[in-house]
Amino acid sequence: MSRRHRFTVPTELAGDRLDRCLATLADEWSRSHVRRLIDDGRVRLNDAAARPAATVAEGDVLTVDEPDPVALDVEAEAIPLAVVWEDADILVLDKPADLVVHPAAGNPSGTLVNALLHHCPDLSGIGGVARPGIVHRLDKDTTGLMVVAKTDRAHQALALAFRWRKVEKTYLAVCYGEPAADEGVVDAPIDRHPRQRQQMAVVEGGRAARTLYRVIERLGGAALLHCRLVTGRTHQIRVHLAHVGHALVGDPLYAGRQWRALADPAAARACRDFPRQALHAMRLVLDHPVSGEPMSFEAPMPEDIGALVGVLRAARG
Predict the structure, then answer these.
(1) Residue 99 burial (CB < 10 Å; 0-12/13-18/19+)?
(2) CA of residue 316 relative to chain centroid, distance
(3) How far is CA 93 from CA 16, 137, 144, in A?
(4) First vs last Cα of the chain: how many Å apart?
(5) Annotated catalytic, 287?
(6) What is the arithmetic mean of pLDDT over 99-125?
(7) Of 114, 107, 48, 104, residue with least CA distance to 79
């Protein structure tokens, strides 16, 4: 069994590679997922078998037969969840640090998916084999708000809302340095780093990515920011801020030893020893996937980021 999707190539994607075009049109699908669909013969270009490197033209029709989700062979685990909202269709939670969203080779258990299957046993199979109910994700050490679908109907509606950028996501971030302007935008394409395969990078020809930021407080060698995602690429805020010279405090992949530039010893130690990227998904705005009711959720600043900001504030004087 499968679900059929049809996409028409718009003017702005004419001349692009088929796999890159499809990954852009189906924004919730990763490039690797798109490639698997093509390799499995599930993608057709104008009703003919598709090749990943084929060039698309305006008006071309891409037809995708996506496999229906199947039951997930993952054990339910009684991991506590900070539930912010729950009804028959969705669950909104405040994810803690050090919690991986879905099982993978290095994390076969102890994940958010394991916890969700215990909390909602009938989630199994919703949305795909590896991530039942998951329509977006946060990195392991990013805290804050996530919405989870509890039914296939809710999953499909939320996936479309994310694809068409109708979900507003705002983050708190503590970065090194103070941006010159109080507000700004980083508009730079992101893809896998050409050499460091565990990292993403700003890469010419990568997937379009746009981040808006606003300075909330200048902290003397650091700053507290609000960041709003227009797109939702892997590591987007982390990559974009590092790209413009303001890497996140504690970021193990994209920050270096910028803490050495801080004049105050206490502030330098606090940044050096911060155990994760200082990033928190603080606000989530969406329409309910079934009722259509506008919904808005906020998660308070976590204690560790609050303590970090307190040290930086005291050092600033």
Answers:
(1) buried
(2) 32
(3) 38, 12, 8
(4) 64
(5) no
(6) 82
(7) 114
Q: What is the average pLDDT score of the chain?
A: 91
Contact (CB, 8 A) for 110 and 269: no
Tell me how far apart the alpha carbons of residues 133 and 163 are, in angstroms, rounded to a whole number.
16
Residue 84: its H or E element: strand 83-86
pTM (2 decimals)? 0.81
Would the pLDDT of 28 be above 80?
Answer: no
* Least confident piece of the model among 101-105, 153-157, 169-173, 305-309: 101-105
Q: Which of 16, 19, 139, 191 is catalytic?
A: 139
* Contact status, residue 212 vs residue 185, Cβ threshold 8 Å: yes
Helices and strands in the chain: count of H runs, count of E runs: 7, 15
Q: What is the pLDDT of residues 191-215, one digit of tens each?
A: 989 888 789 999 998 889 999 999 9
CA quadruple 291, 293, 296, 297: dihedral sign:
negative
77 or 126: which leads in pLDDT: 77
Cβ-based neighbours of 99, under 8 Å, separated by 6 or more: 79, 110, 111, 112, 115, 140
Q: Is the pLDDT of residue 225 over 60?
A: yes
